[in-house]
Write a structure and sequence with these properties.
alpha/beta; TIM Barrel; two-stranded antiparallel ribbon; 10 helices; 42% helix
Length: 298
């Protein structure tokens, strides 16, 4: 399969975050039934832009065999520092070089804006949910899309403290940004659940309010339970049953959109990780079967 062929394919099925320790395992297992349900991979462009030597060869290998999506870490869409347009031009070249069709970022901030400089905070912090912030972030998203000459998707993020100046709830804020920026949604199922526990709302009601037509793909992941009412989004544990239930309901509501398993810490061997990949594929197949059956009875 050539890169031009991959560029014409839409992201579909099940994806996996491409971590360094998984690369040799995937390369060894490529073409085997073990990993047949891995349909695309996700990378952080910050970790690969400018890579040479072995890393560049590895990326070339994957780009020739899998569709790739880019999920950014440091653009800081809600930050006070000026938008890093030089970095965005690097991203644009990177996307074009590897025929990567999609770039997504977190609806958060990670810079402090000290004296107009880019002081990175090494965390993804929540944007205050206000009308002013809607306009501010939407403007930065539109500028990002103008530079990249394509729509991006924003991810709903987990957070642990509500800004006291917030005047909107999270879902209202998210929908307002999506509408004003006219961008796409990278739906994180686990983040909905984590926030619902941390802030005491109904995760299923939140899900039903999502504008499904904007979803391009989703994340599922595990988290750490610090206390009964405090979950930490670590991506270091197995996905739990309530998150699987949310994903299944999302498929029922919006169709079987592509879904990627995030595992950033405590990464098990690939054959163990494939159990959750296969579970996503099974949920997708189940929903597609139910949809086809419903159509046959009409």
């Amino acid at each position: 399969m050539t890169r031009s062929d991959l560029a014409e394919r839409k992201i579909q099925g099940v994806g996996l975050g491409l971590k360094r320790e998984l690369i040799p395992q995937i390369q060894t297992a490529f073409g085997q039934d073990l990993i047949s349900n891995i349909n695309f991979v996700e990378i952080a462009p910050e970790n690969w832009i400018g890579a040479g030597g072995k890393m560049a060869a590895q990326l070339d290998w994957f780009a020739e065999r899998y569709p790739i999506v880019c999920h950014g870490l440091c653009l800081s869409l809600g930050g006070l520092s000026p938008l890093d347009e030089a970095f965005l031009h690097q991203v644009k070249l990177f996307l074009n070089r590897y025929n990567i069709p999609l770039y997504t970022e977190h609806l958060s901030y990670s810079t402090d804006g000290f004296k107009g400089q880019h002081g990175y905070l090494y965390d993804l912090l929540p944007i205050p949910f206000t009308e002013e912030a809607v306009h501010y972030v939407a403007k930065r998203i539109r500028r990002t899309q103008d530079i990249l000459e394509q729509k991006i998707a924003i991810e709903n993020t987990s957070f642990y403290v509500e800004a006291p100046v917030s005047t909107l709830d999270e879902l209202t804020f998210l929908k307002a940004v999506l509408s004003e920026a006219d961008c796409l949604l990278h739906l994180d199922i686990n983040n909905i659940y984590v926030n619902s526990v941390n802030f005491g709302f109904d995760a299923h009601e939140f899900l039903r309010g999502i504008p499904g037509e904007r979803i391009v793909y989703s994340h599922v992941a595990g988290h750490y339970q610090e206390a009964p009412d405090l979950l930490i989004d670590t991506h270091g544990e197995d996905v739990i049953d309530p998150v699987w239930a949310l994903l299944e309901e999302a498929y029922q509501l919006f169709g079987t959109f592509p879904t990627l398993l995030e595992r950033d810490n405590n990464i098990p061997p690939l054959d163990i990780l494939m159990r959750e990949i296969n579970q996503i594929a099974d949920l997708q197949s189940k929903q597609q079967y139910l949809l086809a059956s419903a159509k046959s009875y009409r």
